[in-house]
Specification:
With about 575 residues, the protein is of the alpha+beta class. It has 17 helices and eleven strands. A seven-stranded antiparallel sheet has the order 1-3-2-9-8-7-6. A hairpin with a 2-residue loop joins strand 2 and strand 3. Helix 15 runs parallel beside helix 17 and helix 16 runs antiparallel to helix 17. The longest helix is centred in the C-terminal third of the chain and has 29 residues.
Length: about 575
């Protein structure tokens, strides 16, 4: 949450706001191309079993470098969570309300149309929590830029890592039933897989530490999958297999080599480390203890009794028909993608229903207890209490902060094309939930938070949140790689022309097989990029291999790869002139 008023907000609010954003995705990291290349090399080194030697005598060294470069360029050649070019809102911003007005609603009505245009976000839905209940839900902007159809309050959106709170409620339900011990090792309940480590004590990975992100497990978040995937990896494969992008991201964040699988990377209880991997393990715990699918258990035991009947954990044709179009970093429409792990935040539903669940964290308007009978008041209170080793920023599932001296809870979430955030003052029992179908909504949500702070606590100094850059880091990198390859292609082409004019190369009737074969890697690379990014064909890829959507970077890279393939074919018809004698 933005530190907009030093008298009311402490630095403890900032991690609570930031920790949930992009939690399913590998956390965006601004790094140099060299650092990303190093991360790719290290990942290939571990995953492919190829090692570097300082003396250069290992025959695999060049192979490793080539594979690493190809991995890097393929990753950079397509879209990943990043800021993109600004796109204008399709309309001035239509407003639809389900209930009455208040000061927060008035500010939103007045400012949201301009904010949507300023931040390049097509539409947004906001639900107000007041007096421990959902007061109203309002929608602004459009659901589809192409048609101009307005976004509606009853539409379903993705909420990303806010769903970790639902996972926490499901876990605590089992604790209350005596089926889980909060301070027992997670391995006691895992039947399909066990946490193992030769460096740290896996027995110290408890249910409490998984819920409070102090378990020491790796992987901040996971990239979701295209609906073109022939099959999604199951939970065991998602946890244990190597994941390319997640491994590179984890390596760059921690400086510790990662294959992208869930592993114990620090002593449990030694400190806070946000771990989507830990919540993947919690999903496995819930399923192994109950013997039923995660979503089925949560719907029956948690969201259904709380009245949040629209919440689901996977896209269906019916849900898609009632959802806005998600948009990417450059404002391009995206597919409705799917996470392979439900417990980290694949939930979909109306903003009103999500707000109903969050409102159950506090006492209701008619003195309904915290938990609303789904969980006991004592249990919910423990969940919003700072946990050991977190620096007071984390409860059990909830991010924690302080607002005007009162405990606040919050969480953010992001999947491809969806960003959401909620905050709730647990004393005033006042807050809101916001969700947007756009990767570019990241600075919009703290700006909306500023409006809520003004009407709730009084005007104060505010932080102005700039729009996302025209091209974010992960959009600039593939373009940079394409430019480097293009420069090399131009230099190589000029050299060939110069050699032909000087008579050092001559036209031959039969092309040189060696040069034709030299163009094959460029052609195969191009075909693979087109297949994975630009076609509608089913994707048959390993579970840990990412798939992407079109971006300016992928288009530029495809053009340069095509140029290299053409050059290789042309150069094969110009052989070096053999000097007589």
């Amino acid at each position: 949450m933005p530190a907009r008023n030093a008298a009311r907000l402490t630095v403890r609010d900032v991690p609570a706001y930031e920790q949930g954003l992009a939690a399913e995705q590998p956390r965006p990291t601004r790094v140099s191309l060299g650092r990303v290349a190093f991360g790719c090399c290290r990942w290939v080194q571990r995953t492919c079993g190829v090692h570097f030697q300082a003396n250069g005598e290992n025959e695999n060294r060049m192979t490793t470098l080539v594979i690493s470069a190809m991995v890097l360029l393929l990753v950079l050649g397509a879209g990943t969570p990043a800021h993109g070019t600004r796109a204008l809102v399709g309309s001035a911003g239509r407003v639809i309300s389900t209930q009455g007005d208040d000061a927060f609603a008035d500010r939103l009505d007045a400012e949201m149309p301009g904010l949507l245009e300023h931040y390049g976000v097509p539409g947004t839905v906001v639900a107000r929590i007041s007096n421990g209940d959902v007061a109203w839900t309002r929608a602004y902007g459009v659901a589809n830029r192409a048609t101009g159809a307005p976004i509606r309050p009853d539409m379903v959106l993705g909420f990303g890592s806010i769903g970790k709170i639902l996972t926490a409620w499901a876990t605590m339900r089992l604790v209350e039933e005596g089926r889980l011990d909060l301070d027992a090792p997670a391995n006691r309940y895992l039947k399909r897989w066990q946490i193992e480590s030769s460096e740290y004590d896996a027995g110290e990975v408890t249910i409490r530490r998984l819920l409070s992100h102090t378990s020491g497990l790796s992987i901040h978040g996971y990239l979701d999958y295209s609906p073109r995937r022939a099959a999604l990896p199951d939970l065991v494969e998602s946890i244990t297999s190597a994941h390319l992008l997640e491994g590179v991201s984890e390596t760059l964040q921690t400086g510790r080599l990662s294959r992208g699988n869930v592993a114990l990377v620090q002593q449990p209880g030694s400190g806070f480390k946000y771990s989507g991997g830990g919540f993947a393990v919690l999903q496995m715990v819930i399923e192994d203890v109950t013997g039923e699918p995660f979503a089925q258990f949560v719907q029956r035991e948690i969201t259904g009794p709380l009245g949040a009947t629209s919440l689901r954990w996977g896209w269906t044709p019916e849900l898609e028909a009632n959802a806005p179009v998600p948009y990417g970093d450059e404002g391009q429409p995206l597919e409705r993608r799917q996470l392979s792990i439900e417990g980290i935040g694949s939930e979909i539903g109306t903003v009103t229903d999500l707000a109903r669940v969050m409102a159950a964290t506090v006492t209701g308007p008619n003195d309904e207890p915290r938990g609303r009978g789904v969980l006991s008041e004592k249990t919910v209170t423990s969940m919003i209490t700072p946990q050991p080793g977190t620096g007071s920023v984390q409860g059990l599932g909830y991010g924690l902060g302080m607002l005007n001296g009162a405990r606040s809870v919050s969480h953010g979430g992001q999947n491809s094309g969806w960003i959401a955030f909620f905050i709730l003052d647990t004393v005033r029992r006042d807050g809101f939930v916001v969700a947007s179908p756009s990767n570019r909504a990241t600075p919009l949500h703290p700006t909306i938070t500023n409006l809520w702070l003004d009407v709730t606590y009084g005007p104060g100094p505010r932080t102005d949140w700039a729009p996302a850059p025209a091209l974010g880091t992960m959009a600039l990198l593939p373009l940079s790689v394409a430019v480097l390859l293009a420069v090399a292609l131009v230099v190589t082409t000029v050299r060939l022309v110069w050699q032909v004019r000087r008579g050092r190369r001559v036209r031959v009737a039969r092309p040189e097989a060696r040069r034709l074969w030299g163009g094959l890697p460029w052609l195969l690379w191009l075909l693979f990029l087109v297949y994975t990014v630009y076609t509608t064909l089913p994707l048959y890829l390993p579970g840990g291999w990412p798939d992407f959507w079109p971006t300016p970077g992928s288009l530029a890279l495809a053009a340069v790869l095509a140029g290299w393939a053409v050059y290789s074919g042309v150069a094969a018809f110009y052989a070096h002139q053999v000097k007589a004698g």
